[in-house]
Amino acid sequence: MTDYISAFSQxxxxxxxxxxxxxxxxxxxxxxxxxxxxxxxAPMAIALRAQGVPIRIVYLGHRYGSAVVxxxxxxxxxxxxxxxxxxxxxxxxxDERLIVFRALKYFNMKPSxxxxxxxxxxxxxxxxxxxxxxxxxxxxxxxxxxxxAGFGRVLFHARQFWPDYISCVLVxxxxxxxxxxxxxxxxxxxxARSGLWLERGRPYREHAADFVGRYYFRQNPALxxxxxxxxxxxxxxxxxxxxxxxxNLIRDLMLETGVLDHNIEFEEYIDTTFADGAKYKTAxxxxxxxxxxx
Amino acid sequence: xxxxxRILMGILLWTGVITxxxxxxxxxxxxxxxDRLPEDKRKIYVAYIPVT
Lengths: 294, 52
Hints:
Number of strands of chain A: 11
Radius of gyration of chain A: 19 Å
Strand content of chain A: 15-25%
Order of helices and strands of chain B: HHE
Low-confidence stretches of chain A: none
Low-confidence stretches of chain B: none
Structural class of chain B: mainly alpha
Order of helices and strands of chain A: HEHEHEEEEHEHEHEEHHHHEHHH
Helix content of chain A: 40-55%
Strand content of chain B: 5-15%
Oligomer: heterodimer
Largest interface: A-B, 47 and 15 residues
Distance between the termini of chain B: 63 Å
Number of strands of chain B: 1
Shape of chain A: globular
Number of helices of chain A: 13
Strand order of the largest sheet of chain A: 7-6-8-5-9
């Protein structure tokens, strides 16, 4: 997305996207200023800010798009069947962990009845296939990967227990916000426009799956096509402006589940200036296959 | 040309080829050059992982 914004923004090539395989590495790169912006799970961003790291959440990456997956032919048919079993999560500081807590509460179960292990997202489908874990709670396209390969079954999608679920957010270092706000605005505008473009329908999502899979994620485009279209609202790219109620819920769940040791207010870790600035942006005027976008 | 000179030339040529290949294949010049620009002119690195 960032490369696309760079390529088609009037200001020229401003952003360099860098792929990581896990959130802890992104966190370190952000703290050390090797990365000035990052997509990361919301609770990790909140925790970093609460620890005094000079960053702000400025926008969302997407909505929904996380699921709990079990083996298709395994003994787990319902969530309570996970009692005493191992479930992989991307990080202690992830919404995917919080979904599990929401489900635990719904089924009147205790956290001690499950064993949660942290695992890099690209490893979970293989671990489930090899029966090294009994389930995973992860963002797309890993639930799709397990489904497509035939060994995984979605036990539930995040929205089932969390109607306005959000996972990845765009985090920017405070010094960049202070010194180059117009650059941050350009990035947020581009993400807003890309989100609106993706919501124009199936052909646009299929095209995005093709080029993102080939050139950015290094994944089979068919896998991303599955994740983005099966069904079409499996991952949503609007609305992406941060909303106070959504983040208060995440913060409260973090406090409740012991990954945040003190309260932090929405205004302390979110900067809504750029989302407000992107409010009236329209979708990229770009047709699949074209060499131009406006 | 003496054998010693031939061997020396060979070593220098080999070292040059390996250095060039290393520079072309292993070094990310856009990153190295970007890091040397004044802070307000640098491109912004945006980290992501391959999830939606």
